[in-house]
Automatic annotation (TrEMBL):
Domain ABC transporter intervals: 4-240
This protein's record includes keyword Plastid: no
Entry keyword set: ATP-binding, Nucleotide-binding, Transport
GO cellular component terms given for this protein: ATP-binding cassette (ABC) transporter complex, substrate-binding subunit-containing
Name of the protein this chain belongs to: Glycerol-3-phosphate ABC transporter ATP-binding protein
Pfam families linked: ABC_tran (PF00005), OB_MalK (PF17912)
InterPro entries linked: AAA+_ATPase, ABC_transporter-like_ATP-bd, ABC_transporter-like_CS, ABC_transpr_MalK-like, ABC_transpr_MalK/UgpC-like, Mo/tungstate-bd_C_term_dom, NA-bd_OB-fold, OB_MalK-like
GO biological process, one term: carbohydrate transport
Species whose genome carries this gene: Pyrococcus kukulkanii
Membrane topology reported for the UniProt record: Peripheral membrane protein
Localization annotation: Cell membrane
Amino acid sequence: MAEVKLVNVWKIFGGFVAVRDLSLEVGDGEFLVLLGPSGCGKTTTLRMIAGLEEPSRGRIIIGDKVVADAERGVFVPPKERDVAMVFQSYALYPHMSVYDNIAFPLKLRKLPKQEIDKRVREVAEMLGLTELLNRKPRELSGGQRQRVALGRAIVRRPKVFLMDEPLSNLDAKLRVKMRAELKKLQRQLGVTTIYVTHDQVEAMTMGDRIAVMNKGILQQVGTPEEVYEKPKNTFVAGFIGTPPMNFIEGTVREDGFIDFGEFKLKLLPDQFEVLQEANIVEKTIIFGIRPEDIYDAMFAQIKIPGENMARAKVDIVENLGGEKIVHLRIGEITFQAKFTGESKVKEGQEIDVVFDMKRAHVFKKENGEAVF
Ligand SMILES: Nc1ncnc2c1ncn2[C@@H]1O[C@H](COP(=O)(O)OP(=O)(O)OP(=O)(O)O)[C@@H](O)[C@H]1O
Ligand SMILES: [Mg+2]
């Protein structure tokens, strides 16, 4: 059963559509990541679920309760929704101790003192804050403060966590650590979580599923593997993965090759069949291939000259230690490859590169939709 359900939800500010016809279901106990570039409507979506913003159209259901229905004029205020939100700028009360900061939501609810004490200590233990309960926020590191903010959300035992880029104020190393901790914690608690980020690595590593948004429109929902392996369009394909997928315009020929002008690649028989069935022969398409699916021919398993191989010039080599990002050029066509550390390519060299055709994608030129 879905714990959170959005049905044809819109948010229009003045004339501006921030969220367009969004339908999404988040399962009980699921960790769903809302991913997309700045301004795509992530925070607005989260705020509508929290009850901080009313949808212009559509319905929002939490558990078995309709919390918003624009058409019927239903709107349940945030207090009654049983959700806890953690923001990027987590405002702790500076004059209160860690203990009192965590205890605060329970005091508001007028829980018995003993119960409050039990819960605060339980949460502090879980978050490794037990030793710090008497400190004030200013006496804590950024990561510790973030954990206090989480503690304050957890202590309420809400039905749903809503997190809006909660780790973005932390330095890179701490972020990676907190990422893992947060994920573990969510598993332990089993609380349905919607987590907003524009960081695709965060999304890939944390999410059970990822919902990718762009310009207020949901592009694709799927497991990290699905959105990576089977992106529905060029937006998703280009947004997930670093360096991003290469897109090269080409024409599908009758002989089963894609013709890029400067070079050609042979499609696999089943790929060509799909293109024939879709009536995309002798038409311009967008060929997509990830940098890690292009190899230095010296180290490639299957190389068939004239079919999956081409001669390219090495423009730039970025050595990352274990691997190399290699900027390549064939005539006017530029693309990037990720080679293993063993590759010895040098800038200015001409090399043979192999395209792993079974990992290739084809998108329609007119709308960027994936064919495969
Ligand atoms: N109260 C408002 N009035 C008018 N426009 C708004 C309002 N709130 C948000 N917007 C607009 O709606 C769009 C979506 O905003 P939102 O804050 O949801 O984006 P976001 O995906 O969270 O971006 P970011 O990653 O930068 O936080 C933006 O273009 C924003 O300018
Ligand atoms: Mg935002």
